[in-house]
């Protein structure tokens, strides 16, 4: 018997956390002979407080990593901080503290809270993206992209929030055209910007064959990249006596005869040239108002179409027809060529536009067998495929040949060609902000744009800056930062004052974890071969396109530059759900439904909070945090604690009895269930299996069987099965029951499949080969018992009747056949 104690999580959790850390128990050694398992969770932004969402993201994740470790893997489970970004800068402005000071203080606090969770973080590998030993390499990466022609600078319209004084990505602009952060109306502004050529990888990014990702995320990335096949058709006109061509992309070259108008984006360079003097005033006014709209507003299908006629015409290169040229905001400069042919009969947006402005609608595609009808009576465009009509020499071309035939004709005539178009555009990475990784570029009046030589990295980010609401990077007003000398001519030059989008920092952090202390390189080739790619990645589905797409692009680009040898960053991906307030709503201060984990850890201990997070429901579905439900998990841990304390004994009986055999079966069944559940991220059902097992043992704790080896083995197994989910209580019980090394270093229990089966099976009874009855019988039943049982079964007996039983053939565990001869 062990000395009975009360479960006191506060005491034991602190004790074990300190012990594990002192032993460096969770450090993943680089030289382990075990197979590696790189287990990664999306790194947090250091907002300053670990909230319930973090607990929900990390504790089941940690349980999985612990499970893999016990399964014999050398698990690397690092943690770090995505520490650049706007909130630090806003805090700096609001509270007058420096962004760096604020950020590092938050990180300190979060590290403490992360330790309270008792997760197996490999702290030796921590990265903090705002520190120079990290951002030096972010800068180095920028230079690699620049060197390989994948980073470029251009003047282009950007989404601009006048209140936040910064450019915004399209994703940061809400559908109503306002800023995601502050709600101000976002405008368009032309500024110099740095972009990365992610479009070079559009085609390869559509290949998901090497990874196991949720189907929904794959679909979102596919849609984001937006590949479409079609044709490029070159419309033309004469300007100042010169033939000028303007290509348009269409997925429907078969509708070319239906093009009754042509639309340019308001920013298109042709607008000025093609507009006739009498239309100039109207066109100028329209261009000016379109400039202030975001792309999202412009593309909105809800909004009524607007546009203006330029007075100019272009020639349709297939039909030879003269087509009027309009400008309209729904055509964007960034997509395709910034121009479209308007085919109102067969495209919904063109249809609305033509209706509004009284432009003719001409049917050129008609489904087989359908009667001609007047498009003026149609309620909407007909975008289906069909037979070509009103299409000159192409009339009667069937649907399945139309696109290819028109495309071939255009290629022969030299007026078009088959083409692929993508929705994806280059990634805008410059921010007019201070708190980000500097862009290592110098502008020299003689040499122009000059990259900072690699041996001069990092370009230090000043720690103290003054914030002025200018809309430009605060770094522009830091002479010590801004003024430098040109690396080529040595003359005076200025630095790039914009900083990088924080998505750059998070596009490569998982590489640095593998080689965090390398001061010579961003990473070594050995470290990459040893640890990458990531075996399991866990994070929110909200990152489906940006972060997860950017990281894939980084890996492919760096591979092509010769810095990496693999194709995909994350082999398996899992999206956890979201934890909600008790009211089923997203936790937010304004709703007053925010729950702080710390107070529950204080009351119940980390193990209870961890297990509760896992018990709420399927991990990918999230759920509501209900404080009262913590009690159930707390009770379970207490009952298990008491059970072990009350029944553990060094001296046990090895004698097998029916009861001890039943317990042994329960042990094997529970191992099987928990193993399968944890393998599939089903933490809630794994816990349910352990609770059932616990209840079954408690029922028998005062019976003789409680002194059996099977009973004690089951207690021991339960500690191990529970260890990934509740690491502290199980470690304490493990030591209380006489073990001297950590439970987390033990091997995951195995099971015997035969012992996991039900203790009965269905015996099929045949009479002369025909199935006559099914009987539930004990697994260990003997042949003699089977004979007795079937011959005295009334239903079986009725089929035998007066006949003589000639033979009984028994196939153990399955069936019995009674062979009879009629009298
Ligand atoms: Zn804003
Ligand atoms: Zn120079």
Plain-language structure description:
With 823 residues, the protein is an alpha+beta fold. Helix content is 35%, strand content 19%. The chain contains 27 helices and 29 strands. It has a 4-stranded parallel β-sheet, with helices on one face. It is globular, with a radius of gyration of 35 Å. The two termini are 69 Å apart. The mean pLDDT is 92. Bound molecules: zinc ion (ZN) (2 copies). One zinc ion (ZN) binds next to loops. The site of one zinc ion has 8 residues, from loops.
Roughly what fraction of the amino acids lie in strands? 15-25%
- The computed structural class is alpha+beta
What would you call the shape? globular
What's the total helix number? Answer: 27
Distance between the termini: 69 Å
| Beta-strand segment tally | 29
In terms of per-residue confidence, which ranges show pLDDT below 50 for 5 or more consecutive residues? none
Bound molecules: zinc ion
Helix content: 25-40%
Q: Radius of gyration, Cα only, in angstroms?
A: 35 Å
> Major sheet: order of its strands?
2-1-22-23
Average pLDDT, all residues: 92
For the biggest sheet, the summary is: 4 strands, parallel
Please outline the helices and strands:
Blueprint: H1 9-23, E1 36-41, H2 52-70, E2 74-76, H3 86-95, H4 99-116, H5 132-147, E3 151-161, E4 166-168, E5 187-196, H6 202-205, H7 215-225, E6 228-239, E7 242-250, E8 261-264, H8 270-274, H9 280-290, H10 295-299, E9 308-315, E10 322-327, E11 339-342, H11 348-357, E12 365-366, E13 387-388, H12 399-413, E14 416-421, E15 427-428, E16 430-431, E17 441-444, E18 448-451, H13 479-482, E19 483-485, E20 492-495, E21 499-500, H14 502-505, H15 509-512, H16 525-531, E22 534-538, H17 546-560, E23 570-574, E24 579-580, H18 597-604, H19 606-615, E25 623-624, H20 630-647, H21 658-679, H22 683-699, H23 709-722, H24 727-736, H25 753-756, E26 760-767, E27 770-778, H26 783-791, H27 794-800, E28 804-811, E29 815-821
Helix pairs in contact: 1-24, 2-19, 3-4, 18-19, 19-20, 20-22, 21-22, 21-23, 22-23, 23-24
The structure holds zinc ion (2 copies).
Residues 444, 446-447, 486, 488-489, 491, 493 line the site of one zinc ion (ZN).
